[in-house]
Design a protein that fits this description.
The complex is a heterodimer of chains A (about 190) and B (about 150). In chain A, about 55% of the residues lie in helices and about 5% in strands. Chain A is mainly alpha-helical. The longest helix of chain A has 13 residues. Classes of the chains: A mainly alpha (about 190), B alpha+beta (about 150). The interface between A and B is medium-sized, with 14 and 12 residues.
């Protein structure tokens, strides 16, 4: 009996497994790209002239007004993937960060800043008051060391090198201890 | 830069000097800037009141990615501090976070003196006494404070 049932189990489990694994495995990114046919949107972002389109179409436009000049520096492929996934559902995206969030799209960062403390980007004076709670360096020194500020998915800000070490060693946010991986870290282009 | 003192330690030391924590005194050793001579005043309302407790604090090479090493030099009767002064405190072990500082660690130790936790003991005999006869344990703690932590 037991042999038979084992055999059955094996048969049953073997056939769907490879399929499931294949589906989940390497296809995440491509699935995302394929399903997000948002060409228009990312074109909107990089070109000044079409900005009005994106403003009328989505919630995300405000961030762009503020990002302003840095837009030109942003690599287009990052914009595409970041933007594509965010165009329709901004808020839920932030909550499901841990799942498979890969592209740390600059767009999303600015959205986040925008939705709450817009002054982060809007006023250059405010950035001077930010310091990394780990190395205690202020924004100016962090920039001098050619580092960027990073934000965690839980919304805490550190310099790049400190949060990388902390996540590697403790896999948790130094402030709130929420579990983190490098996928939950977003570069802030301030 | 390998042997140099990290800027964070310099900053922390400066701030400790400029804005000292009430009831806590931490002074870096003249020979070793990673080693601090610490004095903590026994908190008011605790059996350690009026006592002055000496501790040593050492910042390991990996600090702040790993916790400072802290030890009581003054004998103390406390369920979470053993005979040789080792401290049972989560933030010094698995709950360490690089956003914590010398200042916050010492404040936590001061708070531990106000709130002994016999359910997570390091000194088993003391914890046992604390649970079976708290009044007597507190009395012993007072005695030890007078005997070993007298400020004079």
């Amino acid at each position: 009996m037991s042999q038979r049932s084992r055999g059955r189990n094996r048969q049953v489990s073997e056939s769907p497994e490879p399929i499931v694994v294949e589906e989940q495995g390497g296809d995440n990114e491509s699935v995302i790209d394929l399903t997000c046919t948002v060409d228009e949107e990312y074109v909107d972002l990089t070109s000044l002239s079409q900005r009005s389109q994106s403003e009328s179409s989505g919630v995300n436009d405000a961030s762009f007004v503020i990002l302003g000049s840095p837009v030109a520096e942003l690599p287009a492929h990052r914009l595409r993937s970041g933007r594509g996934r965010h165009s329709n559902e901004d808020t839920p995206q932030e909550d499901t960060d841990e799942d498979d969030e890969l592209p740390p799209g600059p767009v999303r960062v600015s959205q986040r800043d925008n939705s709450e403390p817009a002054f982060l980007v809007a006023s250059p004076d405010a950035t001077q008051q930010i310091s990394c709670p780990v190395c205690l360096e202020d924004f100016k020194s962090i920039r001098k060391n050619h580092l960027k500020l990073n934000s965690t998915s839980c919304g805490h800000v550190f310099c790049q090198s400190c949060i990388e070490s902390a996540v590697r060693l403790h896999r948790a946010c130094p402030i709130c201890r929420k579990n983190l991986t490098m996928k939950n870290i977003i570069v802030l282009h301030l | 830069m390998a042997g140099g003192l990290p800027r964070r330690i310099i900053k922390e030391t400066q701030r400790l000097m400029q804005e000292p924590v009430p009831g806590i005194n931490a002074i870096p050793d003249e020979q070793n800037a990673r080693y601090f001579h610490v004095v903590v005043a026994g908190p008011e309302g605790s059996p350690y009141e009026n006592g002055v407790f000496k501790l040593e604090l050492f910042l390991p090479e990996e600090y702040p990615m790993s916790a400072p090493k802290v030890r009581f030099m003054t004998k103390i009767y406390h369920p979470n501090i053993d005979k040789v002064g080792r401290i049972c405190l989560d933030i010094l072990k698995d709950k360490w976070s690089p956003a914590l500082q010398i200042r916050t660690v010492l404040l936590s130790i001061q708070a531990l003196l106000s709130a002994p936790n016999p359910d997570d003991p390091l000194a088993n005999d003391v914890a046992e006494q604390w649970k079976t006869n708290e009044a007597k344990a507190i009395d012993t703690a007072r005695q030890w404070t007078r005997m070993y932590a007298d400020s004079n």
